[in-house]
Specification:
heterodimer, A: 1129 residues, alpha/beta, seven-stranded mixed sheet, five-stranded mixed sheet, 47 helices, 25 strands, 43% helix, 13% strand, B: 97 residues, mainly beta, six-stranded antiparallel barrel, 0% helix
Chain lengths: 1129, 97
């Protein structure tokens, strides 16, 4: 019998080649009964490892490789105390690596100020995590130390026959680990040339010093086949190509989990094997307890957490529910309270209530979302704003008696002020009791391709091109993207190897990241549970992700920053300031006709969640008329319903174009409000529970299984249980199978009803603001940019809403977007100075401070009052922000340069007599300057603010008209006479068979190829009149690949028209270069100028414009190997 | 040690789980394996043509002692050699001078 006590998994981050699960499975195959996990510098994989060991009946030993004096020691945990010591050692090691100490995490007494913020060392000055021998002292009483494998200091010294230092090091360790059962000399034989001798000498030294020995294989991966992955990961870590040797790279594939017999042949010392068992027997630790450790809630005296919770709920129920509804709400409340009490979660709810309450007191907008909105307790405590009784929400989706672990409560806060609430939480719950959750960054396709291609020796240019040419996907799906990869890298054996290696890296963790908002709250110091480290941007976090945190019984609250919340907060504030109106979004009625008219018109850009082209199309068909419709609208456009084919049946049934039917009468109460279609996750749970008779916890597992893509085998297994259960409850086999098929098609991400309802509230609020206060809404939206459209498109949208956008101006612009009232009373948006590239918030503040002494009167006055560098002065002048002072941008630029030079001279030679100081600029300094052409103006705008004061397509419009290329707006005028006479909102007038053929030119503002779209690509084209969606099939994408990556294109295709939505099914595409531009002086979409003549254009772009205006396209460019490159000045 | 890198014939005892050489033929002479000193494994270049080499360092004795004048009573001299096996066969790697 034997125990492997020195084993790394891939949670050593690029220093281990197998998952903990693979290691455990292999150990079980080999008949090994105890296994340790000793990852490098962390306990990242320990929870998964312990779960896997528990599942396969192995004893899990917790440990880590800790770097002490630059060499790793293996430290194994004997008890909870040992675990705590190890956590603290690892915390020290990680903080030390970033030039910090534990004291940096503790702000004794006073609230933290900016000066207290954790500022890690710059990356280039950091070292790997390590501790000194002094830090180890006093923390060893419940740890067992192995001297380390081939990397260990003892092995290294012995291998090079440095006997004295080796002896000294062993004695030092013995002082730290004084008892005989605490320190072991690790004997390793990795079948390398020097191993035999080193092993012998190590054994002799151990005998001499009377230190026991233990056998190990310094395992880096589960089986020999994983060696290539380990070597590749090592190369990635060392940032070097595989073809170059390195001392840290493995020289053979022997560091795998060997059987006892294999190891005994290499290390023929019986005591070394006996000792491994002795160590394994002495290590007892369970870090996956059955109980929860909630944070300490503030409970008034004479109250228990339970009684206080009941008191708070009782107080709210009277306020929130009118008398007729109260009995039902009270019943629900008591049911939920019982479950919460059984699970001992009262304090958790009280803590979340406290956080939300504090945010509201501070005026920070917040809203709970996710499955928490299914709970009436969450509603009564003000955590969520969705009434679960009114929306018929299922509490069991959030919490039920069979649930293990803590429930998820997500709260969205104003993104601008989220840090404020986090700081308060650190103060309230204790700095040592709070930290952010980590998130595992695992290899996805793009990341894997980048790293593997680099390691296999492709140059960075190719690597960049490669990662840009493929969408985000699972790494194991690499062969699905074979074509674009081969297009970039070419066909070769090395490319085939790349495919294999990339697929092999699927799910392998690469590094640890910071969770977007999960904050762990604990009543004890977190270092009892996890090492704490500091993320790259100075935030302290635990070493576990959200699932591990839950398994450890710790409580996490998702404190999420939602930019739309910040947008709503700011727009309310702008309305108050400029219109004098107090807007209380939470008390608005949710059936405003104007709001629903706006939504039905598909003009939903800048609205939360429904601003994509896909959603606009769906809205045009679905025509939501009330808040509940909005809830289903939000839930419909998700991978689950989309892939399950639920969308069209839902719309047809809702619009009355198809009869509502149910596969079984028992499904009617579950699916009635979604017209017999499965739309929400709760419905899956209810079907499994009520139709198939599964207990709630099993039904919840089944629901989770369907919502995640993986594990089809398990789903099939549960499917049998589902079908059997349904038959037992009276359904026929055929019906049971049909229902299961529908349920299992709901694969991928779908919303739960409560989450959709919580989001729908924010959708409604954003729509209300756009409808009634468009200027404030657009200004706040541009400030926070919560959507995915670029600034130019947002400015165009603002103009379409009747809100002009003013350019930045040195005397009018501030630091944020704001409104200005014109003389005729209209509100217009004033762009801030920070929209000018290179003008940071600090520089804008500097200008604003200087302006407090009075407006700037000239460029000279500005330059002498605000000391900016020449580049900043240049960019401000070119943006047009000084036009009112200088008369033109070119003159402002000239004056600015002259003044900057003179100021520079003055700086170096101070005037001897300031009374006779000459002006910095005289009239003769500025020659006669040509005004900017329109093209130059837009070009300068793009270069300085990434937007143009007019849409660039305007410049090419005359030429486009000549070519018969229409405006986007003209597409919206295509409506059949009969439809115009009897407008039935939502009807599809034209589809891709009967629509007219149109030619459109525009700038590509969105390019998407969603995984749910079966290879179709969606491009949104924008011109000066609007935007519309273009759909391209996979064949056309292949045919026009070089065209479709251009920033501006011309498309031809059949028009699709549904309600007020328009789109084009593209049949051909051309680059716009050569039409828009192609003549000296015409700006290009990239902000520079095009100097192609017709001949060059034809060669470079494949587009020839005939004398009669026809565009003739040559898909095979005349130039050999001709990539459609554009020549620009 | 002098490097040779010559393919050689090796007689192997397949009785045990690991096939260990018992004798080898080199330059028309048979050498009996006297003692196995060490063994190790090297693997590399998995991105090209992967190769695994199992190295053996051993002392060998020639079958026929060199016929030197007056040396008949001396014990046979052992030679320390390093051989390895790859996918294609056995190779004499190095011999101690």
């Amino acid at each position: 019998m034997f125990a492997h006590l020195h084993v790394r998994s891939w949670f050593s981050f690029l220093s281990g080649g197998s998952s903990p699960l693979a290691l455990v499975q292999r150990a079980r195959e080999l008949g090994i009964q105890s296994l340790a996990l000793t990852d490098r510098n962390g306990l990242y994989g320990i929870v998964r490892f312990q779960k896997a060991c528990c599942y396969y009946g192995l004893r899990a030993i917790t440990g880590a490789e800790v770097v002490v004096n630059d060499h790793p020691l293996v430290l194994l945990v004997r008890s909870e105390r040992g675990y705590r010591d190890l956590c603290r050692l690892l915390t020290d090691a990680h903080l030390g690596a970033k030039g910090l100490t534990v004291q940096d995490l503790l702000f004794a007494g006073d609230p933290p100020t900016d000066a207290d913020k954790i500022v890690p060392l710059p990356t280039d000055q950091r070292e790997g995590p390590k501790v000194d021998i002094e830090q180890l002292a006093g923390r060893c009483s419940d740890l067992i130390c192995l001297t380390g494998g081939r990397d260990g200091q003892l092995w290294q010294l012995t291998a090079r026959r440095a006997y004295k230092p080796a002896q000294q090091w062993l004695r030092t360790l013995r002082e730290l680990f004084p008892t005989r059962d605490q320190l072991y000399v690790e004997l390793v034989h990795g079948l390398l040339p020097e191993d035999g001798g080193a092993l012998r000498r190590l054994y002799e030294l151990a005998e001499r010093e009377q230190v026991p020995v233990v056998a190990s294989n310094d395992v880096r991966y589960a089986e020999p086949a994983h060696w290539k992955r380990y070597d590749l990961l090592t190369c990635i870590r060392l940032i070097q190509p595989v073809a170059e040797p390195h001392a840290e790279r493995p020289r053979n594939a022997e560091a795998y989990l060997k059987s006892e017999q294999q190891l005994r042949r290499l290390i023929p010392i019986d005591a070394a094997f006996d000792n491994s068992l002795r160590i394994a027997d002495s290590c007892r630790l369970n870090i996956v307890p059955e109980y929860i450790t909630p944070p300490a809630a503030k409970v008034p005296e004479k109250h228990s957490a339970n009684s206080y919770l009941i008191q708070l709920c009782d107080a709210s129920i009277e306020r929130l529910y009118p008398k007729p509804e109260r009995p039902r709400a009270t019943r629900q409340m008591h049911e939920e309270l019982e479950v919460i009490s059984n699970l001992k979660l009262e304090e958790f709810f009280l803590v979340v209530h406290e956080v939300v309450d504090e945010a509201r007191k501070r005026g920070i907008r917040c809203a709970g979302r996710g499955s928490a909105a299914n709970s009436i307790i969450a509603y009564l405590l003000g955590i969520t704003a969705v009434d679960p009784i009114h929306h018929n929400l299922l509490f069991a989706r959030f919490l039920h008696g069979g649930r293990k672990g803590t429930p998820d409560i997500d709260v969205d806060f104003d993104a601008d002020r989220r840090d404020e609430i986090i700081e308060w939480m650190e103060q309230r719950f204790g700095i040592e009791q709070t930290a952010m959750t980590a998130t595992l960054i695992t290899y996805k396709l793009r990341l894997a391709l980048r790293d593997v291609a680099k390691a296999l020796g492709w140059p960075m240019l190719k690597v960049d091109e490669l990662s840009q040419s493929i969408p985000s996907d699972h790494a194991s799906e690499v062969l699905e993207h074979r074509e674009p990869i081969v297009r970039v890298l070419g066909e070769s054996p090395l490319t085939e190897l790349l495919f294999k290696r990339v697929a092999d890296l699927a799910d392998c963790p690469r590094h640890l990241g910071l969770h977007v908002g999960g904050m762990v709250l604990c009543r004890k110091a977190l270092s009892n549970f996890s090492p704490v480290q500091v993320s790259a941007n100075g935030v302290k976090m635990v070493q576990f992700d959200k699932d591990d945190i839950e398994a450890m019984g710790l409580v996490k609250l998702d404190v999420l920053g939602l930019r739309m919340m910040a947008c709503l907060s700011e727009s309310i504030e702008i309305v108050k300031r400029h219109e004098g109106i107090d807007v209380d979004l939470d008390s608005l009625p949710i059936d405003d006709e104007g709001v629903f008219d706006l939504i039905q018109s598909s003009k939903t850009m800048t609205l939360f969640q429904i601003e994509s082209q896909g959603q606009m199309h769906l809205i045009a068909k679905n025509q939501p008329q009330c808040f509940d419709d909005l809830v289903s609208e939000v839930a419909l456009f998700r991978p689950g319903p989309l892939q399950g084919g639920m969308v069209h049946p839902f719309i047809r049934r809702r619009r009355g174009w198809e009869k509502v039917s149910y596969d079984h009468p028992s499904l009617e109460p579950i699916l009635a409000d979604t017209y017999g279609v499965i739309l929400y996750q709760e419905q899956i749970l209810e079907i499994a529970h009520r139709f198939a008779g599964m207990p709630l916890d099993v039904a919840d597992n089944f629901r989770q299984l369907t919502s995640k893509r993986h594990d089809p085998e398990k789903l099939e297994l549960m499917g049998q249980q589902f079908i059997t259960g349904a038959i037992e409850r009276g359904a026929s086999r055929e019906v049971a199978e049909t229902v299961f098929e529908k349920v299992s098609h709901f694969i991928g991400y779908g919303f739960c009803r409560s989450h959709a309802a919580a989001f729908a509230k924010t959708v409604y609020h954003s729509a209300w603001m756009k409808c009634y206060h468009p200027a404030a809404h657009m200004a706040a939206f541009m400030q926070h940019r919560p959507g995915f459209y670029n600034l130019m498109t947002l400015e165009e949208e603002s103009r379409r809403c009747g809100v002009p956008v003013r350019l930045p101006d040195i005397n009018d612009s501030g630091i944020r977007y704001d409104l200005v009232r014109t003389n005729d009373g209209q509100l217009v948006i004033q762009k801030p100075l920070t929209t000018i590239k290179g003008i940071t918030e600090e520089k804008a503040q500097q200008i604003a401070w200087a302006r407090m002494a009075g407006h700037f009167t000239s460029v000279e006055n500005f330059a002498s009052r605000v000391h900016l560098d020449r580049d900043a002065l240049d960019v401000i002048a070119r943006s047009g922000a000084l036009d009112r002072l200088a008369g033109s941008s070119r003159r402002a630029l000239w004056e600015g340069r002259v003044i900057a030079n003179r100021l520079n001279e003055v700086d170096h030679k101070p005037p001897t007599n300031s009374l006779f100081k000459l002006p910095l600029l005289i009239e003769e300094d500025v020659p006669e300057l040509k005004p900017l052409t329109d093209a130059e103006r837009i070009s300068w705008d793009y270069q300085t603010t990434s937007t143009g004061r007019v849409h660039p397509i305007i410049l090419a419009r005359r030429h486009l008209n000549n070519l018969g290329i229409q405006t986007v707006e003209s597409c919206y005028r295509y409506t059949p006479l009969e439809a115009a006479a009897q407008p039935d909102k939502g009807e599809t007038y034209y589809d891709n068979h009967n629509g007219p053929v149109v030619n459109i030119a525009g700038i590509v503002i969105v390019r998407q190829r969603p995984p749910t779209a079966k290879g179709f690509m969606f491009i949104t084209l924008e011109d000066e009149t609007g935007f519309l969606q273009c759909v391209l099939n996979p064949k056309l994408q292949e045919y026009c690949y070089q065209t479709l990556i251009k920033p501006a294109i011309i498309v031809r295709g059949q028009l699709q028209a549904t309600g007020k939505w328009r789109g084009i099914v593209v049949s051909d595409a051309w680059p716009l270069e050569g039409v828009f531009g192609g003549y000296s002086g015409f700006p290009s979409a990239r902000g520079d100028q095009d100097h192609l003549d017709d001949g060059e254009r034809a060669i470079a772009t494949g587009v020839v414009i005939e004398s009669d205006g026809r565009i003739v396209k040559q898909h095979q460019p005349a130039v050999a190997g001709g990539d459609h490159q554009r020549q620009t000045s | 040690m002098k490097s040779y890198q010559e393919p050689i014939d090796v007689e192997v005892d397949d009785g045990g789980k690991i096939a260990l050489p018992t004798a080898l033929h080199w330059r028309r002479q048979r050498f009996r394996v006297h003692k196995l000193i060490d063994r190790w494994v090297l693997q590399s270049r998995w991105w090209e043509r992967e190769e695994k080499r199992v190295y053996l360092l051993m002392e060998v004795l020639p079958e026929r002692a060199p016929e030197t004048k007056g040396a008949a009573s001396q014990p046979l001299a052992t030679t320390t050699i390093e051989i390895y096996r790859n996918d294609y066969g056995w190779v004499l790697s190095r011999v101690v001078d």
